[in-house]
Amino acid sequence: MAIALTTLVAEAQRYLNAARISDYCPNGLQIEGRPQVRRIVSGVTASQALVDAAVAAEADVLLVHHGYFWKGENPCITGMKQRRLKTLLSNDISLLAYHLPLDVHPEVGNNVQLAAQLEITVEGPLDPDDPRSVGLLGSLSEPMSPRDFARRVQEVLGREPLLVEGLEMVRRIGWCTGGGQGYIDQAIAAGVDLYLTGEASEQTFHSARENGISFIAAGHHATERYGVQALGDYLARRFAIEHLFIDCPNPI
């Protein structure tokens, strides 16, 4: 079965409420390919490796979290950017990308999907008074030591996380996938035992240590694999088309 590209894009836009979210890149259809869609390939970042894999998988649409055309980047179509775009255009593959709308969605968002993977019960936003905050606050059913929770993260995500170990047992957790280390201050204010994100900055260590909480950096790519899979599955079910998630491993 096939669905019109315009119909697929319209449903993704509606479902994610993308038009209402201010972002650093255009959300939605970034590159237009063939008008009919039978197969979606999804992945975290529209790297050349993923683009090539989408070609090999005979995708009609490549659905990603990290697409192209970020604010402040050089707009010239040269080098790496030219090669990626040329591959998509020459193979008539559409690129559909959602950044912040995919982070914050209450059903397929990266943050809620990561919580499900790690068995964290979502309680609400990390900072309910800050509309720009995309992080979440939640809890474990039973307290765990920081090292035991870090082992759970490693087992689920398949990579050893960076752990700054605090003294307290972990029950209350704040988190934001990807490059969300800057939200650690909101997490501290919310009274968490541990803050989890993808990346770490130099000052993150000091914030965690001096405020007596644990901190885990589990990888930008690793923490953001689940939202795009869930969105691809939703669209595939909605329109009875094929969906294949392809993971191109990234240690960062």
TrEMBL record:
Does this UniProt record's set of keywords contain Metal-binding? yes
InterPro entries given in the database record: DUF34/NIF3, DUF34/NIF3_sf
Annotated GO CC locations: cytoplasm
Record key words, sorted: Metal-binding
- Keyword Transferase: yes or no? no
Q: So which domain of life are we looking at?
A: Bacteria
Family annotation (SUPFAM superfamilies): NIF3 (NGG1p interacting factor 3)-like (SSF102705)
Query: What is an example of a GO molecular function annotated in this UniProt entry?
Result: metal ion binding
Q: Where does a divalent metal cation bind?
A: H65, H66, D103, H220, E224
- A Pfam family found in this protein is DUF34_NIF3
Q: What family does the Swiss-Prot or TrEMBL record give for this protein? A: Belongs to the GTP cyclohydrolase I type 2/NIF3 family.
Q: PANTHER family under this entry?
A: GTP CYCLOHYDROLASE 1 TYPE 2 HOMOLOG, NGG1 INTERACTING FACTOR 3
Spell out the protein name for this chain.
GTP cyclohydrolase 1 type 2 homolog
Organism listed in the record: Pseudomonas borbori
